[in-house]
Amino acid sequence: MINVKNLDKSFGDARVLKDISTTIEKGEVVTVIGPSGSGKSTFLRCLNKLEDPSGGSVVVDGKDIMDPNTNINDVREQIGMVFQHFHLFPHMSVLDNLAYAPTKVKGLSKADAEARAQDLLQKVGLSDKAEQYPSRLSGGQKQRVAIARALAMEPDTMLFDEPTSALDPEMVKEVLDVMKSLADTGMTMVIVTHEMGFAREVADRVLFLDEGRLVEDAPPATFFSQPESERAQDFLAKIL
Amino acid sequence: MNLDFTQVIPSLPFILQGIGVTLSIVAVALLFGFVLGVFLSLLKIGKYKTLRFLADAYTSIFRGTPLVLQLMIFYYGLPQLIEMDVPAYLAAVLTFGLNSAAYVSEIIRAGIEAVDEGQKEAAMALGIPYSEMMKDVILPQAMKNILPALMNEFITLTKESAIVTVIGVMDIMRRAYIVGGDLYLYLEPLIVAGMIYYALVMGLTLLGKRLERRLRHSD
């Protein structure tokens, strides 16, 4: 469970997140949508402290990430993250990309970590790519490897930062399919996305951000059919 | 024109023995300079302001003064402070190592900063501690980018090592000079020394090219 309370974030004079409060329950799939520059990604990056919140609090399973006594790496171990531009380790094979963190952080033996990696690669349909280097893969394949790499740490929660935005259109589906099946397993997921169809179909809840404020927090059925705010109505009219 | 290499031939073994001396100075200084250079570069990108300042000041001083001056300070000047003679070989290795570290640290700092910020974020998001991230994720990628610049520095070091002659270390240069003095014939032994240095530099260049190719396998 992630408890966000009065979260604020400023970069210099620019206040990009304003007083955001919400709770992400275990097993919930939450999509974060909104116009570009609305603070979606910053919000997501505050959840695992890739950005330092300027105010308010983020509590992950009872651990306050702002508390200087909290070892942030313990929290990050529980939260997987998938980036728009994959950020696979280019100097490691696909298998090593997956096995690296579990051996370093969780203390798994190399053999165990590699067995787990093989298992995950099979789940994302890339068993045959284990020995390849990331540069040999297509965008969709890279993103599936990135998802598998995050899952190799056996996190409780997965964060997705526009996971399909950098992909060629024909590769979007293969990544969304992996995410869908992940949601079916009961994984807690927070997804920043522009894929409205996906949000409508998979999400339990939609957060709509505009100019750093959380404007709507509603189930997708409600949000997409009868958004309360004018800003959300406007946004939906433009993209749907 | 009266070039006469025949007179130098008996002295060739004497000059060639300098290769070992030169290489041992270069190798030790290189290793020392590299380790210290990595350390300094990590200070330079670290979060501690004082350490950053010290590392920058170090670089600035070693880059801002002549190498031959540094060498003389270590050989002639230092004994005055520690009231102990500094052997020429030690002074040479120390000077070249410390000097090289200043240049290497700048090369590595630039290399680290050129690695995509996303790599760091990906490692952080996986909960990987800073030191492990540097060692396993950032530095290996930085090394690949900076290998040409690093090889350049090593080549410079090999050539510049000739100035240890001024403190009497029996390297290639010094031996060629001595032979010149003995025979009263300078050009020929100096040409021989030049050929030896050139061969060493070409060897290093080839080695660097081979290393680069090996590192490129993941592209």
Features:
heterodimer, A: 240 residues, Rossmann fold, 6-stranded mixed sheet, 9 helices, 10 strands, 25% strand, B: 219 residues, mainly alpha, ArtM/GltK/GlnP/TcyL/YhdX-like (chain B), transmembrane (chain B)
Describe the structure concisely.
Chain A is of the alpha/beta class and 240 residues long.
Based on Cα principal axes, name the global outline of chain A.
globular
CATH superfamily assignment of chain A? Answer: P-loop containing nucleotide triphosphate hydrolases
Helical content band of chain A: 25-40%
Helical run tally of chain B: 8
Describe this structure in words.
The complex is a heterodimer of chains A (240) and B (219). Chain A has helices at residues 40-47, 72-78, 94-105, 110-123, 139-151, 169-184, 196-202, 220-225, 230-239, and strands spanning 2-11, 14-24, 29-33, 55-60, 63-64, 79-82, 157-161, 188-192, 205-210, 213-218. Chain A has 240 residues and is α/β, with parallel strands linked by helices. Chain A has a single domain (2-237), classed as Rossmann fold, CATH 3.40.50.300. In chain A, strands 6-7-8-3-9-10 form a six-stranded mixed beta sheet, with helices on both faces. In chain A, strands 2-1-4-5 form a four-stranded antiparallel beta sheet, covered by helices on one side. In chain A, strand 1 and strand 2 (14-24) form a beta hairpin. In chain A, helix 5 (139-151) packs parallel to helix 6. The longest helix of chain A is centred in the last third of the chain and has 16 residues, at 169-184. The relative contact order of chain A is 0.17. Helices cover 79% and strands 0% of the residues of chain B. The mean pLDDT of chain B is 92. Chain B has one domain (5-218): MetI-like fold (Orthogonal Bundle). Chain A binds chain B through residues 48, 50, 73-77, 79-81, 83, 85, 87-92, 100-101, 104-105, 133-135, 149-150, 153, 159, and chain B through 116, 118-119, 121-122, 124-129, 132, 136-137, 140-141, 144, 217-219. Chain A: This is L-arginine ABC transporter ATP-binding protein. Chain A: Keywords: ATP-binding, Nucleotide-binding, Transport.
